[in-house]
Specification:
CATH superfamily of the largest domain: Ammonium transporter AmtB like domains
Structural class: mainly alpha
CATH topology of the largest domain: Ammonium transporter fold
CATH architecture of the largest domain: Orthogonal Bundle
Strand content: under 5%
Shape: globular
Number of strands: 2
Distance between the termini: 57 Å
Oligomer: single chain
Order of helices and strands: HHHHHHHHHHHHHHHEHE
Mean pLDDT: 90
Number of helices: 16
Low-confidence stretches: 334-344, 405-432
Helix content: 55-70%
Length: 432
């Protein structure tokens, strides 16, 4: 047991937990004001439901020996997860219980990431059911494959902090969810603009702050590799931001705040699988390269019928894929002895990284489709067109993000379920 490592992991766990509220602000600012609370709730709710599911069954299924495909239930309900350093699948110098909590924060935010693809039209009960099932059926097995000694780990796939397990996984699920749930009303024919860009910038800044725990904490010790991951996490998004801004200038002559916030997230996503494996200079190269495919993926998506509302696929799916592949290109023997070669990389490792990415896309995509279809048999996935028109804040939660100061507003008292929807569609004078 090492007190410095324990202190660092306590801080890292808190930093990663902060990323979920940060994501709520990032996503919440990007939607229309009538859907702001609903969008933020899609992130916040994961803290409770997914967090508890992880502690009860998810952690055991993901990070116990089990077999090549799934862990066992030996640690279910935190049986044997104590305050000493024993019992975990990896060697620890801090309490096993803290390791479980650190890993919980990863599962929580991964589930929340998916919401960005289906905001402003998916019913909250259906979304909640989906992320609960998804965290156990999709996230836990994939985490086991990479971090729990599963078949991808045996193959030699490397994912320092979650490029494949978190971002490619969430990106694939987001793509499928956007296709299954369908487009928002008015998509392609009316402006669906962000209502609060300062929220977006605040969310991006807090995400960057929390990401130091996400990446540097994944070293699991307060030592040189944590320091390396910390510095690469600082420099890669900075390089992405520069390239993204230059692309904006060349394309439209106007670098946007939303573009800058998106660039930061893309850089953070891309460096995640490589953070502890590459040098600071190579981290800047990686961040700069990652800007290009994500930037043009976002532009291309806008020209299609795919309503990935907040571009989860372009930022997390594409960014995570690029980062995972470039891990095999830029990893350096001089850093930690894990790979041979420097910038020339290891072609065999690139192939292994590609296999891991493809496996994550296929498994997450297929299982997400199955889960959504099963849920749709029990309950509707999508809000009614009338509910979309009014806004999901009122129709799903009975609250508004902003207090109206005049004019008309739907009668909040009328909200209480489908049977009360009709009165809500006829505005009444507000005395607020």
């Amino acid at each position: 047991m090492n007190q410095a490592d324990t202190a660092w992991m306590l801080i890292s766990t808190a930093l990663v937990l902060l990323m979920t509220p940060a994501l709520a602000f990032f996503y919440g600012g990007l939607v229309r004001s009538k859907n702001a609370l609903n969008t933020m709730m899609m992130s916040f709710i994961s803290l409770g439901f997914v967090g508890v599911l992880w502690a009860t069954v998810g952690y055991s299924l993901a990070l116990t020996a089990g077999n090549n495909w799934i862990g066992d239930l030996s640690l279910a309900f935190l049986n044997g997860v104590g305050l000493d350093e024993t019992g975990a699948i990896v060697a620890l110098t801090f309490p096993h219980m803290l390791y479980m909590a650190f890993q919980a924060t990863f599962c929580i935010i991964t589930a929340a990431l998916i919401s960005g693809a289906i905001v402003e039209r998916m019913r909250f009960p259906a979304y909640l059911t989906f992320i609960c099932l998804w965290s156990v059926v999709v996230y836990a097995p994939l985490a086991h494959w990479v971090w729990g000694g599963g078949w991808l780990a045996d193959m030699g796939a490397w994912d320092f902090a979650g490029g494949t397990v978190v971002h490619v996984n969430a990106g694939a699920a987001a793509l499928v969810a956007a296709l299954v749930v369908g487009k928002r009303s008015g998509y392609g024919s009316s402006s669906l603009l962000p209502h609060n860009v300062p929220f977006v910038l605040l969310g991006a800044g807090l995400l960057w702050f929390g990401w130091f725990g996400f990446n540097a904490g994944s070293a699991l010790v307060a030592g040189p590799i944590a320091s390396l991951a910390f510095v690469t996490t600082m420099l890669a998004p900075a390089a992405t931001l520069i390239v993204w801004t230059m692309l904006d200038l060349m394309r439209s002559g106007k670098p946007t705040a939303v573009g800058a916030a998106t660039a930061i997230v893309v850089g953070l996503v891309a460096i995640t699988p490589a953070a502890g494996f590459i040098s600071p200079m190579n981290a800047m190269f990686l961040g700069a390269i990652a800007a290009v495919p994500s930037y043009f993926a976002l532009i291309l998506r806008a020209k299609t019928s795919l309503d990935d509302s907040l571009d989860v696929v372009a930022a997390h799916g594409v960014g995570g894929t690029v980062g995972a592949l470039l891990t095999g290109v830029f990893a350096e023997k001089s850093i930690n002895g894990l790979f041979d070669g420097a910038i020339a990389g290891n072609p065999g490792q690139v192939l292994i990284q590609g296999t891991a990415v493809l496996a994550a896309i296929l498994y997450s995509g297929v299982m997400s489709f199955v889960l959504l279809k099963l849920i749709s048999v029990v309950m509707p996935l999508r809000a009614a067109s009338e509910e979309e028109s009014v806004g999901l804040d009122l129709t799903q939660h009975g609250e508004e993000a902003y207090l109206h100061t005049g004019g008309t507003t739907p009668a909040i008292a009328a909200v209480g379920g489908a049977s009360n929807l009709q009165p809500m569609l006829h505005p009444v004078k507000s005395d607020a």
